[in-house]
Amino acid sequence: MATGLARDNRSLRGGIDLGGTKIQAVVITRTHRVIGEARRPTPVDGGPEAVTVAMAEALGEAASTAGVAPRYLAGVGVGSPGSVDTDAGTVSKAGNLPGWDGTFPLGDRLSRLLGCAVRLGNDVQVANRAEMRLGAGRGHRSFIGVAWGTGVGGSLILDGRLWVGRGAAGEIGHVVVVRDGALCGCGRRGCVEAYAGRAAMEAAARKRADRGEKTQLFRLMKQFGRTRLTSGVWARALDDGDAMAHDLIGRAVGALGTGIASAINLLDIGTVIIEGGLGIRLGQPYADRIAEAMSPHLFLPDRAPEVHVAALGDLGGAIGAALLVGSSAA
Q: For the chain, which ranges sit under pLDDT 50?
């Protein structure tokens, strides 16, 4: 697409999926076709300012591929972890992002860097909206989306609408599955995320390796040039038969199954969509394992929900973020 044409075409939208290990950016058309994409690692230091700069760079690269300068987009949507205030344009307590314990004006900072309007949303909620409209959620009036990645997040679609409660509905990662269990990043104990979040799994793997237990995880991390145990590192270790990786992933699957089953018992929803970096990378075989882990905890096991992997893959969160920008461009 020629840049000159794009200057007069405000139907192009940008989207950024901000994750604990990666930043995914896209530019989409009116018909939701991705015409530009880019990925950057999430900075491990420098706090929110460094993360914001990396987000702007990723979006700029995606926009360049699409043949448009960011300032000529209709706007950019962002799916962010943490507590998102959409009106104020701020993100608070994004514990899985480096140095992001307080409140940061992400919308304003990013808008200044890009030269266009920016809208914020919760990362899992925007991914769920995309799956509802364009992916695995089509045809399902109600479903639970579970993001299995650096942390564990969730959101609810009830009778065709996103349910946010008082603003924090769907936090399945903080459903307690072991009373007085492992310490979670939220400061509480026994949460699903304390067992299944990639950050918690890495911390557990480091402790076990420091005690002398053998694993390929950290060798693979260095081999792939990573600073953290990414989804790709976990997948490779599983393929190579690494015992520690299989044990920790098995523990994660058990925690996810227990937590999701409790949500199903409460809401009686017939569909679960597994999203997030680990969920998408490990795919349907592990979604099936989560379904198996749910079974013993379901009040009505003969009415077990369907469990699917997100159909939009790694781009789902960024596409969902782009959908935050003006319904007139939808």
A: 1-8, 327-330
Residues 150 and 108 in one domain: no
Distance CA 214, CA 156 (A): 40
161, amino acid identity:
R
Structure tokens at 142: 């109600």
d(CA 178, CA 160): 32
The pair phi, psi for residue 285, each rounded to 5°, is -55, -40
What is the spatial distance between Cα 209 and Cα 18, in angstroms, rounded to a whole number?
29
Angle at 32 between CA 141 and CA 125, to 5 degrees: 45
Could you list the residue range(s) of the whole structural domain that residue 290 is in?
139-311
Which residues does 169 contact at the CB level (< 8 Å), separation at least 6?
155, 156, 163
Q: CB of 153 within 8 A of CB of 121?
A: no
**Residue 48 exposure: Cα atoms within 13 Å on the Cβ side:** 20
Whether 87 and 172 map to the same domain: the answer is no
Q: Answer whether residue 133 is part of any domain.
A: no
pLDDT of amino acid 327: 46
Asked whether the CA dihedral 92, 130, 231, 293 is positive or negative, the reply is positive
Do residues 76 and 14 lie in contact, with contact meaning Cβ atoms separated by under 8 Å? yes
pLDDT of residue 2: 40
Q: For the beta carbon of residue 34, count every other beta carbon within 10 angstroms.
A: 18
Nearest C-alpha neighbor of 289 from the set 312, 269, 272? 272
Contact 116, 56 (CB under 8 A): no
How high is the pLDDT of residue 9? 55
Tokens 């058990």 identify what position?
254
